[in-house]
Amino acid sequence: MKISSSLLLAALTLVSAGDIHATGGPDKGPGKPDNRELVESNKLRRGLSRTGLLLHGVALQAFADANGKTRAFGTKGHNATVSYIKGLLDRTGYYDTYLQSFPYTFSEGSGTFSADGTDYAAGYFTYGPAGEATGTIVPVNNFGCEQSDFPAEVAGNIALVSRGTCEFGLKVALAGNAGASAIAIYNNAAGNLAGTLGAPSRPDGPYVPAVSLSGEDGTVLLAAAQAGNLQGTVHVDALTEARYSSNIIATTKEGDKNNIVMAGAHSDSVSAGPGINDNGSGSIGVLEVALALTKYKVKQAVRFAWWTAEEFGLVGAEHYVANLSAEEQSKIALYLNFDMIASPNFGYFIYDGDGSTFNLTGPAGSDHIEKTFEDYFRKEARLPSAPSQFDGRSDYGPFLEAGIPSGGLFTGAEGLKTKEEAKLFGGEAGVSYDVNYHEAGDTLANCNVGAWIQNTKAIAHTVAVYARSLAGIPRGAGVLRRRVAIPKSISTNRKFACGGTHNHNVDRI
């Protein structure tokens, strides 16, 4: 995607001068009539523009470029993103906005791995400790999810284990408890592996230096280690410290505050790159809809949120939901989530709220949200769509667990597009939906703007539908809100970094 010099100049001028403005809110000065109409889908969608998306995209790219090429939470790039979004919303006068700030442990690092003199590409697990270890590479039995999986020979040596079944943090802690000096975890499928240990520590054992390896390299190393005495070296550089960060919460001043329609996206990136698709695309899509909505009245109050530290484990969304009283939770009629909506080799994926495809059903009303998106793509956009697993691995997870009807969109991450999906959506089969996922290449230039626009229109449509009417969404004192019983292998290992075939699953397992 080529960005015109005039667009770049306009965005950089906007950023440097702080001349942030809305796309046109209500003019309701003293004595002036309020001629705004109740929001309608087609009119709200017409207020969106390609230029608006790109202008915000250039701004977020500039924040990253000026601050170490990243917008990870706790960095200047992310702080600038938060200020930018909140400033735009405040200027409209249409929303009550606030920053929900809190401390959380920040972690970043890098790792290297070699075996018998050969270097292999290695990744870092968030919250992994710094250190270096040299020793025999010892394969771990099964998936390293039980202490008995670790043979006695692992003591003082480097454990080698496959991804799968349990979270990364448990594997690393059990390796430490077995006396291993380090651990290498390889993907259980083709491709690289990225993730987090999920927390700074855990009671199962002490963390040891840990690196991730691709499935291809892991298979080669496993065979070599089983065949004879394979010597390896793990080196990890890491920084871990407490940093403050903020969610942005913006609620319309108008509308029924006992029936809130909520939409959100995470505003942070990983440390490795600027994160313009993951998740600048969702943040910007939600922002453009929020700005366009200011021209209209709403029946239900609409609340927009931009979550911090999602890449560290849904931290911002979990903090928000956990700090709501039962009464305040009950006022949220539904939650819509948008995480990665401009993948270059995209698919139009809708969270499977009715469980008909993946057998994980959301709270009552989630099925209606899924159908609203499906009907939009089929009838209005005239585009194909497909279901995405509704497993709680993005910021909707805490809302599912609170029994709040939820839904949303996704265009794919590191998973490979199938032949059937290539026929349905176009693009290239056998290639990741986003080959730049969690990499330095996740830039504005590598976003699919066409998919971005279509998904932003779908956001606008669904917000407009529910801001007018909550028909199909159970409400009232007599409604028992059902909490989702997410299987343990998922509920303890939510996204913790975006990704997946149809879902976000480059997580802790």
From TrEMBL:
Its EC number is 3.4.-.-. One of its GO terms (molecular function) is aminopeptidase activity. It is an enzyme of class 3 (hydrolase). It comes from the Eukaryota. InterPro entries: M28_fam, M28_SGAP-like, PA_dom_sf, PA_domain, Peptidase_M28. The keyword Transmembrane helix does not apply. Keywords: Aminopeptidase, Hydrolase, Metal-binding, Protease, Signal, Zinc. The keyword Protease applies. Residues 1-17 form the signal peptide. Its cofactor is Zn(2+). Residues 134-220 form the PA domain. This is Peptide hydrolase. It comes from Ascodesmis nigricans.
